[in-house]
């Protein structure tokens, strides 16, 4: 990968995160806009998106871009930037620090770079294809590895797409795992949940109705940390997959079995 691409991506994500962090403490939830019954939009989402897209257009005007708020541009390019300007907007709006800026880059349909920045946590995650996954915190660099847990101590998380059918499937999965596993939680930022899988803090995240902008960066993190990411049929996840399961690999088959037998 060109060094310039990585540099521009890193700087854009950090600038967006620092701007959002300044707005976080004084944010008033009364100012939100409802995108749907389950989704909200804030002025900070739009400001973050503008910072990142402006940087891409300035340096790589020919590149293709997909962003949660603006959609896809009409460029035709081997390079594809995938942006979630704030992943976990609801958390942000309620002054919960579990939100992040997520940016992935694909080349010819394959993920090559994933960045996730959680400014309130002071955590910057980075994965480059074939070079591992890392966490940068307090000026220290730590290589990430998925957990080795397989039975008994498994912690699962979940998220869902915006459609009612996605919500219902997620609730059904949650109910089963809450009763049969150690725990199952929705943390509210799919990007961070994927980062936590990569770092070994949790064992899995499943998402019916997964959007590429929510998960692309985290998918590369998990893969580079030694984990597994598929759709609900067990096929390797790609940018058009409708559902996503990411895990440490050791619990993957068991969760796929739950999804199948419980008809999720």
Rg measurement, Å: 17 Å
What percentage of amino acids are in beta strands? 25-35%
Strand order of the largest sheet: 4-3-5-6-7-8-9-10
What is the CATH architecture term of the largest domain?
A: 2-Layer Sandwich
> What string, H for helix and E for strand, traces the elements in order?
HEEHEEEHEEEEEEHEHEHEEH
Classification by helices and strands: alpha+beta
Largest sheet: 8 strands, mixed
Strand tally, please?
Answer: 15
Helical percentage: 25-40%
CATH superfamily of the largest domain: Fructose-1,6-Bisphosphatase, subunit A, domain 1
Choose one word for the global shape.
globular
Low-confidence stretches: none
- CATH class placement of the largest domain: Alpha Beta
Structural account:
It is built from 7 helices and 15 strands. With 264 residues, the protein is an alpha+beta fold. The mean pLDDT is 95. The protein has 2 domains: 3-143, Fructose-1,6-Bisphosphatase, Chain A, domain 1, CATH 3.30.540.10; 155-261, D-Maltodextrin-Binding Protein, domain 2. Helix 5 (190-199) packs parallel to helix 6. The chain has an 8-stranded mixed β-sheet, with helices on both faces. Strands 12-11-13-15-14 form a 5-stranded mixed β-sheet, with helices on both faces. It starts with a helix and ends with a helix.
């Amino acid at each position: 990968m060109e060094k310039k691409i990585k540099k521009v991506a890193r700087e854009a994500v950090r600038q967006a995160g620092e701007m959002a962090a300044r707005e976080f403490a004084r944010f008033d939830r009364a100012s939100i806009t409802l995108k749907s019954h389950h989704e909200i939009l804030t002025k900070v989402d739009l400001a973050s998106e503008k910072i990142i897209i402006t940087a891409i257009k300035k340096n790589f005007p020919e590149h293709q871009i997909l962003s949660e708020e603006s959609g896809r541009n009409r460029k035709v390019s081997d390079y594809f930037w995938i942006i979630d300007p704030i992943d976990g907007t609801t958390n942000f709006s309620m002054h919960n620090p579990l939100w992040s800026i997520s940016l992935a880059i694909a080349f010819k349909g394959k993920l090559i770079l994933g960045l996730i920045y959680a400014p309130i946590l002071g955590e910057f995650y980075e994965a480059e294809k074939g070079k591992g996954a890392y966490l940068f915190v307090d000026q220290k660099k730590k290589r990430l590895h998925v957990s080795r847990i397989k039975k008994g101590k498994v912690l699962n998380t979940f998220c869902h797409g915006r459609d009612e059918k996605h919500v219902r499937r997620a609730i059904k999965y949650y109910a089963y795992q809450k009763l049969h596993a150690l725990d199952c939680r929705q943390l509210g930022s799919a990007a961070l949940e994927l980062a936590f899988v990569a770092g070994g803090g949790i064992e899995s995240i499943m998402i019916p109705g997964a959007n590429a902008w929510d998960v692309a960066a985290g998918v590369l993190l998990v893969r580079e940390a030694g984990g597994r990411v598929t759709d609900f049929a067990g096929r390797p996840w790609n940018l058009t997959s409708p559902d996503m399961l990411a895990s440490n690999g050791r619990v993957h088959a068991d969760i796929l079995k739950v999804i199948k037998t419980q008809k999720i």
